[in-house]
Amino acid sequence: xxxxxxxxxAAKRYMSEANATIFALSSAYGxxxxxxxxxxxxxxxxxxxxxxxxKNDFKARVAYLRALYRPxxxxxxxxxxxxxxxxxxxxxxxxxxxxxxxxxxAVIAALLExxxxxxxxxxxxxxxxxxxxxxxxxxxxxxxxGLADLIHAETEAQRKQALLQSSGSLSRLYGxxxxxxxxxxxxxxxxxxxxxxxxxxxDVITNLTNDLKAxxxxxxxxxxxxxxxxxxxxxxxxxxxxAPNVGKSSFLxxxxxxxxxxxxxxAGTTRDIIxxxxxxxxxxxxxxxxxxxxxxxxDQVELEGIKRAKKCIQQADLIxxxxxxxxxxxxxxxxxxxxxxxxxxxxxxxxxxxxxxxAPRRVQFIANKADLLNPEELQxxxxxxxxxxxxxxxNGEVKEFLNAFENLLKELCGTPLAEAPRLSHVRYRQLLxxxxxxxxxxxxxYSPEIYKDMAISAQKLRQAIRCIEIIIGHxxxxxxxxxxxxxxxxxx
Length: 492
Fold this sequence. Notes:
Layout lengths: L1 H18 L1 E5 L6 E9 L3 H9 L11 E6 L6 E10 L10 E8 L1 H12 L4 E3 L4 H8 L5 H12 L3 H11 L2 H26 L9 H20 L4 H7 L1 E7 L5 H9 L17 E7 L2 E7 L10 H16 L2 E7 H6 L5 H12 L5 H5 L4 E7 L6 H7 L5 E3 L9 H15 L12 H20 L9 H18 L6 H10 L4
Parallel strand pairs: 1-6, 7-9, 7-10, 10-11, 11-12
Antiparallel strand pairs: 1-2, 2-5, 3-4, 4-5, 8-9
Main location: mitochondrion
GO molecular function: GTP binding; GTPase activity
Protein name: tRNA modification GTPase GTPBP3, mitochondrial
C-alpha cells in the first residue's frame, strides 16, 4: 500500500512537472544586441499579460513593441518586442510567447526572475522545449537529432546535412518505409485470420513479399553508404603519418595556415598526438599529427608516441602518408609496383602494411621535399598516379595536393541532397541493420511448411516495423489493425 502511494505521488508530480509552463533564455547568454526569452505552456497567456499588462491583446505571430514590467511593483524592466504563438501552431505545440529584449545580463536576470515568481511557471531544463515539440508531434526523433546537429554545425556541408534532416528528409524516408511494412504486416495478419472466411485475394502473400523485397533493397542501399553522413557529422578523421623528419608537422602547419606543431631539424620532435579541427572547403577535417614511425628507438616516450600513432591510423577515415621524395628517388621508386615493394620493405615490420595499406581505407601517399629533385626526376616521380609530390617550402607545390584532398573529402562525405538523405547517426544504422535482418528472416524462412503457425512469421514483420519506429520515436501497436480494417473491410 505504501509503495503504491509513492508511485501515485511520483506520477502526479511528473504530470505536474510536464504540464507546467516553462521559460528560459533561448539565445546565447552574455552581452549582445538582442536576447530572446521563450515561454511555453498552459499559463503562457497569463504570464504574457502579467509582464506586459492586462490591457494588451495580441494577434498571433505579430511583433509588438511593448514595455515590460515587474508584476509586483509595475516598475519597467525594459522595452522590447513581444510575440504570441497560440498552440498548436507553435514550435512546442503549446501556447508560446517570446520576449526579445536588450542583451544585457541585468535585463535578462530581471526578466527571468520575475517570470519565476509567477504562479505555474518554472525554469526549463535543457532540451525541454524540443522535448515538448516531440511529445506534441511537432518533430520526430530524426528531426530532433537534425536540429541538434544544426546547432553544432561548424562547416557549410554540415549545415546543409543538418538542415535537411531537421526539415524532415530522413523522417519522410523512414516514414514511407514504415507505412509499407505496416501495410505488409496488416495484409499478412488479415490473410492468417480471415483467408478461409472472407474474400481475400490469393496473391496477397506474393504482393507483400515483392513489396518487402523492394523495401529491403532500399534500406540496404541506404545503410551501405560508406558512413558518409556519419563522417560528415563527426568530421573526417585524417591522420598524418610517416617516418621521422619527413615533414609531417610542417605539412600540417602549411595546410592549416598557422603554427600548430613544433618544427625542428631533430628527427622525432613530435612525440604525442596533436589534434585540431579545420574547415576545409566546407568539410570538417579532424587532423591528427602523429609521432614518426620507425623500427628502433630507445626513447620510451617516443615508443609510446609510435604506439599511439598506430592506433590513430587504425581508426582513421583518411590517412595522409608522407614519404621523403629524395629517398624515393634514391631507391628509384618510379612505378606503383616499386612503391608497394618499398612500403612493404620499410613498414611491414611496424604491423602497418596489413592494417593500413591493404585495408579498405583511403590512403593518400604524399612525397614531400620535392624541391630537392631536379625537374627531370620530379616528372618521373609524378608518373606514379597514387603519389602526389609536394614541397612544404613552396606553396605552389601544394596546389595539386589541395585539389586532390578536396576531391577526397567530397568522396568521403558526399553531397547532402534532399532526395537522397544520408545516415547521420550510428543508432540509425544499427536499427536499420536489425530491420533488414528481420525482413530477411521472414523472406528466407516464410512458407506454410516451415511456419505452420503463421503468427510466428508475422512477428518478424512487427519487429522490423519496431526498429524503424524506435528511430523516429513513434512506437505503436494499433496501426496495423487500422490498416487491416481500411484495406479489407472485414466484417461488412
